[in-house]
Amino acid sequence: MPSAPEIQDSGAPVDVTRQLARYIARLQYTDLPDDVVAAARRGVLDWLGCALAGSHHPTLDILLSVARELNPQPQATVLGRQCRIGVMEAALVNGQMGHVLDYDDTHMAGVVLHASSPTLAALFALSETSGASGTDFMLAYAVGFEAGVRVGQASPGHHKGGWHLTGTLGTLAASAATARLLGLNEQQTIYALGIGATQAAGMQQNRGTMSKSFHAGKAASNGILAAKLAQKNFNSADDIIEGKRGFCRTFSDIASPELALDGLGGRWEIVRNGHKPYACGVVLHPAIDALIGIRATANLEPGVISEVTLRVHPLVLSITGLADPQTGLKSKFSIYHSAAIALIDGAAGILQYSDARALDPAVIALRRRVKVIADETLRTDEAHAHLISNGQSYQKYVEHALGTAANPMPDAAIQAKFMMNAEPVIGRERAERVCEYTVSLEKQPDVRELLKLCV
Amino acid sequence: MPSAPEIQDSGAPVDVTRQLARYIARLQYTDLPDDVVAAARRGVLDWLGCALAGSHHPTLDILLSVARELNPQPQATVLGRQCRIGVMEAALVNGQMGHVLDYDDTHMAGVVLHASSPTLAALFALSETSGASGTDFMLAYAVGFEAGVRVGQASPGHHKGGWHLTGTLGTLAASAATARLLGLNEQQTIYALGIGATQAAGMQQNRGTMSKSFHAGKAASNGILAAKLAQKNFNSADDIIEGKRGFCRTFSDIASPELALDGLGGRWEIVRNGHKPYACGVVLHPAIDALIGIRATANLEPGVISEVTLRVHPLVLSITGLADPQTGLKSKFSIYHSAAIALIDGAAGILQYSDARALDPAVIALRRRVKVIADETLRTDEAHAHLISNGQSYQKYVEHALGTAANPMPDAAIQAKFMMNAEPVIGRERAERVCEYTVSLEKQPDVRELLKLCV
User: Fold this and answer.
1) B65 and chain A: CB distance < 8 Å anywhere?
2) Is the ipTM, as predicted for this complex, more than 0.95?
3) What's the Cα-to-Cα distance from A399 to each of A342, A346, A372, A379, A383, rounded to whole Å?
C-alpha cells in the first residue's frame, strides 16, 4: 500500500541524524580527550576478559555450531576458541559471548546499555577484513558507544516498553562504530544508521534464556551489515533518528530526538561507563563491597561469624531476595549467597556463582546467618554492613559501589578481573600480553595482533 | 541488571505460544483443505514471478554484491541470476527481490502483510540444504503464513506505531515456516517463535528507500537463523507471543494475544491472500479495472478520447494524486498516469510504470484529460469510470477490484502475470515449465527442481 506522502514530514525540526552522522564521519582520533582514550582502553580489556570467560558457555556451543554450518569461511576469529568463521557470524558469536555471563560493562547514566558487547564484537570481526590500527579502532569504539547511549537518552522509557536496549541501541552503536571504521562519508553514515535502526530488535520477555545475550551478538552482526551496505550507497531515510516513524518515536512515547546531540563532542558518555567487579547484578555490589572491605581488615573465621546484617535499598530484596539458591545461575539472584561468598572467598567472580559454591555446606551455613533490612532512604549503590564474629562487632558503610561512575574500578582492578577471566582460557602468558597490548592500544599498528592472542 | 522476577508473570491466561507451536508442529499436509492448497500454489507462482521481475533491480545489485562478499559459499540459489551464495544470504537477497517492486501478494483482512516474500524466500533457501518435497513445502508455507497473519491480528495498530509489518510479522511467519520445514517438535517450535520474535524489526520511516524491501529479506534470514538455532535447543521464553513483554504487547497498545488462536485450523488466512494484477498501489486498482473493462468492449482510439472521469474513494487522490509524474517510480503514485496507460496499453504492469512511459507524449496528453472525483461513499476497492470518445459515452462500475478477497484473480490471470514477469528473465520455455510445475506442486518430490528453472 503506497502511503509515501505520510513520511515526508519529519517529526523534529532538527536534522539530528545528519548532524550525528557528520560528527561520526569527521571526528579524528586526535579529537578524543585523554579520559575518553583511557575509558576505551579499559573498555576493550574488560570486554575481552568477559568474552573469554563466556567463550565456553554451553549457549555458545550451540550458537557456534549453527554459525559454522551457515558460514564456515575462515574470515574472522572466534574468541577463546581455535576456530575462524564468517565476519557476520564471528560478530554474532563474539557479541553473545561478551554478554552471556552478564559480567560486561554497563552504562550508568540513565541508559542501561551494555554497549561494548555489540560494538566491540562488530569492530573486531570487521577489522579482520578491513584492518584497523589501535587509533582507528578506539575512535570507532568511542563514536559507536556515544551514538548508542545518546540515542537512548533521546528515547526514554523504551526499556519499560519491553525492549532490551543492548539489542535495540546496541544495533545503532554497532552500526555507527563500523561505519566509522570503514571511513564512510556523512551521507553513507546516515544510511548506516538508517539500515541499522531498521534492524534493531530484542525483547525483554527473553530474559533468563539464551535469547537474551543473543541480542548483543545480533546487534553486532546487524551493525556490520548496515555499514557494509551503506558503503555501497544502499540507501535509507535521511532522518531515521528524529523522523515521525523513526527510531526515537517508535521506541519511546516521550522521545526528544534532539537530546542525542546535546553537548556532543563536549560531554562523553564512555567516561561514565561502569565496569562490574562482581559477576552478578549491580544492586548486589555495594553490600559485597562492604563485606569484602570488612574481611580485608579483620581476621575473620567464617565458621564463627554469628550474625551478618545488611541495610540496603529495597530493590536488593525484590530482585535478589532468593534465600537458598540451588544452582550457580540462581545464586546470582541471592543477596544471602553473595554475602556468604564475599566473606568466605573475599571475591564474587564467576567461580563464586558456580553450582558447586551454591551447594557448598560452609556457604549454606553462613548465608543462613545473613539478615537483610530494606531501607528506602538508601540509593541502590549504597549499603551498610554489620557483623559479629567471635563476639567482636565490625561495621562498614559503602557510599558508592565500586564500578559505578562515582567510584570507578581502578585500572589495576580491571586488569585483575581480566586476568581472572582470561587466564583459564588462554593461559597466564597470553593474558599478560593482552594486558600490555591494551595499555598502549593507541600505539598498535594492527588490532589483529590482539585477536591472535585471544584464541 | 537482573530483574528476572518481573518476567515470571505472563500477561495472558492462555498459553498462546505453546498452542500455536503445537499446532504448527503437528499439522500434516493431509490436514490442509483444498482451497488452502490452491492458495499455496497460486502464492508460490505469483511470488516467483515478482522475485524474477525484481531480480535485476539496482537495489539487488548492491545487496547481492555485499551478500557474496560476506558468504560466497554456493549453498543456495539467487533467483534470476547465475549465482549461488550462503543460505542466510540467499534468503536475504531473494526476500528483498520479491518485495522490491511492491508487486507481491498482500493479505487483505486487516493485516497489511506481504507474507510470501519473507516466508517463501526463507523456505526456498532452506530447502536447498534440507531438501523438501512439494507437500512439505506447501505445508510449511501455509503454517508460516497463518502464524504471521494471526499474530498480526492479535497485535492491532502496530503498523500505525511505525512498524513495517512485512519486517515484524514477516520474521514470525518465516520462523514458523522454517520450523515446520525442519520438522521441529513443539518445544523447539516455541523456541523458533521466541528467537524469531526477538529479531523482528523494520521501520516505516524507511518507506520509499532501499531499506523498505530489505525488511522482507531480513525477515527471511532471521527466520532461518531462529529455526536452525531452535533445532539445536537454543532456548527462548515459552510465552513470546502473549507474555507481558512479548510480541503482541510490545508492538501493540491494544493487544489480544488469544486472537491468534481464534478458529485455528478452521479459518485459513492464506485463502484471503490478495494478488496484485497491477504494479502499483492497491487503491488504484478498481479504477484501472474499470478502464481496462471499457477498453475491452469498446473500440477506442486513445487520441480521440476527449474526457475521462473517475469517481473513487478519497484516499486515491491523497495517496496517488500526482498529476504529472516525471519518472517511472513516481508514476506509480499517479491516478492520472494509471488511467492513461490502462486505456492505451490495456495493462498496468512493470512496463507501464517505466521512465519511458512516464515521459511518453501520448500518455501525457491523455492523462491531462483525466478528471478525478473523490467520493466518500465508496469503498477503496470500488470505482466508477465514465469516458467520452468520438462523441460516444462509455461507463463502467467496479464493485470489488480484481485481486481482492471478494474478487480474486483467476488462476489464468495469475499465470499470465507470472509469464509477463518471468519471461524477460528466464525465457518463455522455462517460464512455462515453472507454471506447469507449480500447478502440480503437491506431486513434486523435490522443490530444488523448481529453483533450477528460475536462474
Assistant:
1) yes
2) no
3) 18, 19, 17, 9, 7
